[in-house]
Specification:
The protein is α+β, with helices and mostly antiparallel strands. It has helices at 2-18, 156-160, 397-420, 435-465, and strands spanning 36-43, 50-57, 61-64, 68-70, 73-75, 78-85, 90-97, 112-121, 124-129, 133-134, 141-142, 171-174, 214-217, 222-225, 230-231, 237-238, 252-255, 260-263, 278-281, 287-288, 292-295, 300-302, 304-305, 309-313, 317-319, 332-335, 337-338, 355-356, 360-362, 369-373, 377-379, 392-395. Among the domains are: 19-174, no CATH class; 278-335, Ribbon (Complement Module, domain 1); 339-408 and 459-466, Ribbon (Complement Module, domain 1). The model is unreliable at 1-25 and 424-433 (pLDDT under 50). Residues 412-439 are annotated as: Disordered.
């Protein structure tokens, strides 16, 4: 009795190990499919519509892309149970669902996917689900759902990969953003474990594709992936880039390899003769910049005002536009203005309605004076200031002496006339002041006259010596 119990426990343990969701290291997904996302395209079993999803494989699992509902359970995780290598490019892999489901017949049932893979290129595979349609799952799909678990060493093809009519339809796995094409002979290969590869010669030896075309070998055929600019079965035709003519305004199109050149009619330019050149003729007054020449669309020219001039209107920078005109308006430069200059000391006053660069002013000292400091000639400068400094004039010694001698001479003549015809003097004190006050005033006046005469004699001596 004890022996029977031990055997029963061992049997259960064996079942757990066999049907555990842990990875079976002996079963693997084709290495090119592992750890990548693939564009999965197939025909829906129920509706016949073309479906596109993302299908991802691990080394031994389907990580995403196949999700089924059965008896309230969502089956979306699959582990490789068994595989069969048929050739270098053909293999069969059986995946069991990691999640179980219950039915009224029994519990803990699983789904199985039998996938027959064929490698076309590293970027393109196709495969078939080689089981009958299963009405238990939603959406309907070709999956195997046995009532009891198959034996551990059950034959892959006969156990998991059986089907009747209608036969499975092709499904493709393509790397994103690639364009490899299925061969024309891609078809369901029966039986499950038989190779569909037949002896084939290399139709790409030697390469029949011209002008750098890439040859893809098939079964008794080849396909050329032509280089850019060529077409045809063997890439022998240069695509006419001049059809229709892209050149505008009467331009002549010259075809090249994946390019064209336009010979533009007179007065037009640009890749498709859609632009008129801009021209510059002559120099704008008081400016520095282009004086002549022809310019292309979007070319830029720059002007600046000459020293002493500033922008009055217009634009310093202008751009050639498609219609052959320049953006903005012509730069107009006007002379820099200076404020009225200061008048000098003992100079004639300057009068003018205004001064601009490079106007000048000329000062002059009044009669009898000469320059002591400053400048008699000054000019309005480029920065709006005046050169030099206002002049300062002083009286000349000759003019001073001449004036002094003339005054002395006039004074002498006046005194002589007074002596020859004296006038009666008026009373000194007309207001009844005392005679003492009158004497004091005469005394002071006499003293001043003495001082003046002494000073006059000194200045006279100096003037005569000079």
């Amino acid at each position: 009795m004890l022996t029977n119990k031990v055997l029963a426990v061992l049997a259960v343990a064996a079942q757990i190990l066999i049907f555990s969701t842990d990875t079976d290291a002996a079963c693997k997904v084709p290495p090119e499919l592992q750890d990548k996302d693939w564009v999965y395209e197939y025909t829906d079993v129920s509706t016949g519509e073309t479906m596109t999803k993302t299908l991802s494989f691990g080394s031994t699992t389907i990580q995403q892309g196949i999700s089924l509902e059965v008896q309230g359970s969502n089956i979306n995780a699959w582990t490789c149970l068994s595989d069969l290598t048929i050739s270098d490019t053909e293999s069969v892999a059986v995946f069991k669902s990691d999640i179980t489901f219950d039915t009224f017949l029994n519990n803990n049932r699983r789904l199985y996917l039998c996938m027959r893979f064929t490698k076309v290129t590293d970027d393109l595979f196709y495969f078939y689900l080689m089981s009958d349609k299963n009405s238990l799952v939603t959406p309907k799909e070709r999956v195997f759902s046995p009532v009891s678990e198959p034996e551990t060493n059950a034959d892959v093809c006969s156990t998991y990969c059986s089907y009747g009519d209608p036969k499975p339809m092709i499904r493709t796995l393509r790397k994103p953003d690639t364009a490899d094409k299925l061969p024309t002979d891609a078809d369901l290969c029966e039986n499950c474990g038989d190779s569909c590869i037949v002896s084939d010669i290399d139709d790409c030896a030697p390469n029949p594709c011209l002008n750098g075309g890439q040859c893809i070998d098939g079964v008794d055929l080849f396909t050329c992936n032509c280089a850019t600019g060529y077409e045809g079965k063997i890439c022998d035709r240069n695509i006419d880039d001049c059809a229709p003519n892209p050149c505008l305004n009467g331009g002549q199109c010259i075809d090249g390899v994946d390019l064209y050149t336009c010979n533009c009619a007179a007065g037009y330019e640009g890749k498709i003769c859609d632009r008129i050149p801009c021209t510059v003729s002559g120099k704008e007054p008081f400016t520095t910049g282009p004086t002549d020449g022809s310019y292309n669309y979007m070319d830029t020219i720059t002007y600046s005002c000459n020293p002493g001039y500033e922008v009055q209107s217009g634009n310093r920078e202008r751009t050639c536009q498609p219609d052959g005109t320049w953006s903005g308006s012509t730069l107009v430069c006007a002379a820099v203005k200076c404020q009225d200059p200061e008048n000098g000391q003992f100079t004639k006053e300057q009068t003018s309605p205004g001064y601009n660069f490079p106007d000048g002013v000329t000062y002059s000292c009044i009669f009898g004076y000469e320059v002591q400091s400053g400048d008699l000639e000054r000019s309005c400068q480029a920065d709006g200031t005046w050169s030099g400094n206002p002049p300062v004039c002083k009286m000349t010694i000759d003019f001073f002496c001449e004036t002094l001698l003339e005054k002395i001479e006039n004074k002498g003549k006046s005194e002589k006339r007074s002596a020859e015809s004296p006038e009666e003097s008026s009373e000194i004190d007309t207001r009844g002041k005392g005679k003492a006050n009158g004497k004091l005033k005469n005394l002071r006046k006499g003293r001043r006259c003495g001082y003046y005469k002494a000073l006059e004699a000194l200045i006279l001596e100096t003037c005569l010596e000079s």
